[in-house]
Amino acid sequence: MKKLIYLFSFLILLSCSGNQGDSTLEATLSTGQIVEEQGPITLVIHGGAGTITRDAMSADMESEYRAKLSESLNAGYQVLENGGSSLDAIIEAIQVLEESPLFNAGKGAVFTHEGRNELDASIMDGKTGMAGAIAGVSNIKSPISAARAVMENSPHVMMSGQGAEQFALEQGLEIVEPDYFHTDKRYQQLQDVLEKENNEGTSAYLYENPDRKFSTVGAIALDKDGNIAAGTSTGGMTNKRYGRIGDSPIIGAGTYADNTTCGVSSTGHGEFFIRNIVAYDIAALMKYKNMSLNDAAEEVVNNKLAAINGSGGIVSLDRAGNVAMKFNTEGMYRGYINEKGSPQVFIYKD
Amino acid sequence: MKKLIYLFSFLILLSCSGNQGDSTLEATLSTGQIVEEQGPITLVIHGGAGTITRDAMSADMESEYRAKLSESLNAGYQVLENGGSSLDAIIEAIQVLEESPLFNAGKGAVFTHEGRNELDASIMDGKTGMAGAIAGVSNIKSPISAARAVMENSPHVMMSGQGAEQFALEQGLEIVEPDYFHTDKRYQQLQDVLEKENNEGTSAYLYENPDRKFSTVGAIALDKDGNIAAGTSTGGMTNKRYGRIGDSPIIGAGTYADNTTCGVSSTGHGEFFIRNIVAYDIAALMKYKNMSLNDAAEEVVNNKLAAINGSGGIVSLDRAGNVAMKFNTEGMYRGYINEKGSPQVFIYKD
Fold first, then answer.
1. Which of A153, A157, A162, A300 is the best mutation test for B, with the most CBs of B within 10 A?
2. How do beta strands A331-337 and A344-348 pair?
3. Do B252 and A277 touch (CB under 8 A)?
4. Cα dist. A315→A100, A135, A300, A322 in Å?
5. Under an 8 A CB cutoff, do B245 and A205 touch?
């Protein structure tokens, strides 16, 4: 009986999937069933989605982004190649991005309304279903490593503010002065927004950045043992106020991983991603509707989210090594690697 | 084709659902399809799940709990009866519980390790898909009303700490001195835990309360227009540290509402509820597997959560007026009302 239903589901999926615009790597899975066979070690990353166009990007800047994404992919892949775990690989890949001022995470974090940097991160282990997250921290050099410490060394999933900073200190994580996160470029972005607010009388917290860049970073890896791990790290929104928490530290919204379905890391207009439980919804469509990773990710990002103007994207990976990188914005910094020395990096739609 | 699949799903559901232990009101829906027909105005609430046994409860205490749960149900139902919205009804019902020292929310909030009260709450509107949440606030009299203000008067879903308090102040919500939340009973509970920690050398943050009461409160309503709203409010865990955030303010874990499936409010060991995206998972099983509310709630609470020792429960409601109140603990303060003057209140398993 079950098989019959799978078959019918498959036929329905087939009949719907003919003309969907696809801005991603094609998934090879097409059976409509949850994957059993394990794929090669693979790492997929993103560095944020938004209004990223060729016209607005200098050749030098594009090279910088491509080089840093490749560096991140190579660093994480080396961990996998040496037999390391998917958790170790994503930490390595994300830390390369956190330490770069190019991306809105760690060193390159955007500024809050009050001129601070408040960082969020989360991580999930698809083998055990354990997870960790931190929100609103200002002095932890690597937020993703703090999320991992919460997962592995506390009974909690989520810690916030000064309490989370205290925990990180006790855990021996690297603590920095808050101005470690100061970059002139990000500070100027805040000043531009504040000036605009001032001139236009826009209520501060209703202000939306016109270029709508959601430059969170994230990574998902599949290791030699078939374990999937996913992680996300961000500085949040420029000019955020009121201790706003976005989707990045929310398990099920910004990050999700389960060996039996997939790992997902989100980047986008966080409020939409929280309300639509984006990361878990992709896994739920695979688990409950027997969709392929590609179809599930397409459905959530380009049908459900796009229909309500929920801007952003996701990168994801399943146990067969299928990669889906979906976004409904003009671009998304992204890439994957499943073969030594061959990181595949993309920025625009085509 | 779709109908055929629904039929098969129905047959499968029937064949599996014969001998499940059921600690709830029986759901009347049995077609295995998402409900189309609108039920009567209904309100369902909970006041927390845990080791609640007849042996440990005095007759007086039981009467107090029953009276307060009935008062909450009557207050919320009156809103619905007067043609009010499901959002207004759950606010009314939850505020009765927040203002009572009996429940771990608002006035009766438990204490953190540092001897503070840090409150969390969230709300979701099943008609619009909008949501609001606050985490770690210490001076907002009604946390659920602050969650609603975040939903209705800001572009954000989640605010935390002093930023959330500042927002509530600007919104004109009632601000109280932090010691408004001090009750001797809860303070003594913290002292007992601290003493035990001290004597047994248990690491503070690894300590688990032996009586395992998760006395969050929550409510879901269905109004005359067929709109579902859900809300949850809590003081969190006694002796919590490090700015720990549980599931109550997490959309998809502690609270979820969607007119096309159901509304859910959770109470339990929050970390398990976050990792398993409990509230949304029930809706996902209805939406993607055509399960009834009763079967979906049973699957999540008494199969999935119980299998990993994820203690707690949920109350839920669908558009047909079906109520499911599921828990895998010894008791859960709970009740529903769908007829004037007849609140139905329960505490134990039977």
1. A157
2. antiparallel
3. yes
4. 20, 22, 12, 11
5. no
The dihedrals phi and psi of B81, each to the nearest 5 degrees, come to -65, -35
| A243 closest CB neighbour out of B161, B244, B284 | B161
Is the same domain home to A13 and A118?
A: no
Query: Of how many residues is chain A composed?
Result: 350
Half-sphere exposure of B295 (CA within 13 A, CB side): 25
Cα separation values, A25 from A55, B29, B56, B254, Å: 23, 42, 60, 35
* Contact criterion met (CB below 8 Å) for A213 and A48: yes
Clarify whether B216 is annotated catalytic: yes
Query: Would you give the DSSP letter of residue B162?
Result: H
Which chain B residue shows the shortest CA-CA distance from A241?
B163
* Whether residue B281 sits in one domain with residue B233: yes
**Length of chain B (residues):** 350
Q: Which has the minimum average pLDDT: A2-16, A109-123, A278-292?
A: A2-16
User: Is there a contact between A284 and A312 (Cβ–Cβ < 8 Å)?
Assistant: no
| Positions of chain B with pLDDT under 70 | 1-36, 201-213
Segment A34-78, tens digit of pLDDT: 446 899 999 999 999 988 888 888 999 999 999 999 999 999 999
Q: Any chain A CB within 8 A of the CB of B246?
A: yes
In this structure, the answer to whether residues B129 and B274 fall within a common structural domain is: yes
Q: Residue B24: give the domain boundaries.
A: 4-35
C-beta atoms of A1 and B8 within 8 A: yes
Tokens of B266: 């959770």
Q: Is the domain of B51 the same as that of B101?
A: yes
* Chain A CA closest to residue B280: A277
Nearest CA in chain A to B253: A252
Specify whether A58 is located in the same domain as A167.
yes
Among A205, A238, A277, which would you mutate to test the B interface (most chain B Cβ atoms within 10 Å of its Cβ)? A277
Q: What is the pLDDT of residue A195?
A: 86
pLDDT number for residue A39 = 96
Q: Is B277 an interface residue toward A (CB < 8 Å)? A: yes
Q: Are B214 and B99 in contact (CB under 8 A)?
A: no
The model carries a pTM of: 0.89
Task: Point out the catalytic residue in the list B42, B112, B216, B261.
Answer: B216
pLDDT of residue B198: 81
User: Could you tell me if A323 and A26 are in contact, meaning their C-beta atoms sit under 8 angstroms apart?
Assistant: no
CATH classification of the domain holding B59: 3.60.20.30
Cβ–Cβ gap B206/A155 under 8 Å: yes
Residues B210 and B243 in one domain: yes
Cα–Cα distance for residue pair A258/A265, rounded to 1 Å: 12
A10 and A102 inside one domain: no
Please name the residues in contact with A257: beta carbons below 8 A apart, sequence gap of 6 or more. Answer: A124, A125, A126, A220, A228, A229, A230, A263, A264
Q: Is residue A120 located within the same domain as residue A169?
A: yes
- Rounded Cα gap, residues A255 and A341, in angstroms: 27
CA atoms within 13 A on the CB side of A205: 21
pLDDT at A5 over 70: no
Tally of domains within chain B: 2
ipTM value for the complex:
0.89
Other Cβ atoms closer than 10 A to B92: 22
